[in-house]
């Protein structure tokens, strides 16, 4: 969302206020809000909920089991659930408060949910922690999660802090899970353009309230909007850092009802292309697209005319593609139509945009890249 949006500025000023009295609860059926005095706590656990009843007992027990010794609160916003999610959360209030975790629950009963971005913003606005720990209702945090991420965030106030994860059911999204857990600190920055999405994944996020307010609200467009990727890119635009606690601190559940499945590949593709052009291609005078096949050609066609002219070649290992000699951009209105040379990667020159999927060639892509002794983020960037 644009920072010039007046409606957003109004909402931001509402969230930004930090008076001694804070919003603590909202009656679900009437929408009336009750203010009670409450001092700031160290960590607010931010949990949007939508029809999560079957996961909540495990999720909330894990919050009770945290070994963090600072002050905590759980802020839940129920986004028009049609199951008994709200009742389940309320059933845990006594146990949570006995653990000295304050609880604030609100929501709405509209016919349709407003979306994850809306629910996150609401849960944050009614909370008062100096730091925000994002928790999906279907995931389970390990006992040391808040303690270790809090310690990391105190040192990196302007960063999104993540962690390693255990994926359940075991073996689901194997490549994605391996990618999440094995990226180096340097690659957290260099691989932000890949189709996997944020290198520090949303279910593991932990950040300061101050940084959230600087970046701005989550996009509230609702179903089909990748609010996490939009916030992630905006954080990077603001100069934010990325860091990961290199321990498994979250059991990350895979299931068909997950919100991620509502976002189309094309939506993600466009955001990635735009961010790549803004952050990388604007700095390069020319470059080579590594892949003369479908994905490489698609990237070329989606570039701005200025960046298309910077493409000096495609490169590949497929002799059939190389023997064709050129890729002709048939859709171009230019006459003659642009013809881009297709070269073997060994005779092509850096910098490269790599449009070959990671971890899908039995190590051949990685070996070829290593043989050229290139530096990731300077001589090449991964796009797939």
Task: Write a structural description.
35% of the residues lie in helices and 25% in strands. The protein has helices spanning 6-16, 53-64, 85-91, 93-98, 116-125, 145-155, 174-182, 185-190, 209-215, 227-237, 265-279, 294-302, 305-310, 319-324, 364-371, and strands at 21-26, 33-37, 41-49, 72-79, 101-108, 129-134, 140-141, 159-168, 206-208, 241-253, 287-290, 311-316, 326-328, 339-344, 352-354, 380-382. A six-stranded mixed beta sheet has the order 13-14-12-11-15-16. Strands 5-4-3-6-9 form a five-stranded mixed beta sheet, with helices on both faces. Helix 2 links the parallel strand 3 and strand 4. Helix 2 (53-64) runs parallel beside helix 3. It is elongated. The two termini are 25 Å apart.
Question: What's the short version?
Answer:
The chain is an alpha/beta fold. It is 35% helix and 25% strand.
Placed side by side, the strands forming the largest sheet appear as 13-14-12-11-15-16
Tell me the helix content.
Answer: 25-40%
| Tally of individual helices | 15
The assigned structural class equals alpha/beta
Distance between the termini: 25 Å
Mean pLDDT: 90
Rg, Cα atoms, Å: 23 Å
**Number of strand segments:** 16
> What characterizes the major β-sheet?
6 strands, mixed
Strand content: 15-25%
Based on Cα principal axes, name the global outline.
elongated
Instruction: Point out poorly predicted stretches.
Output: 1-37
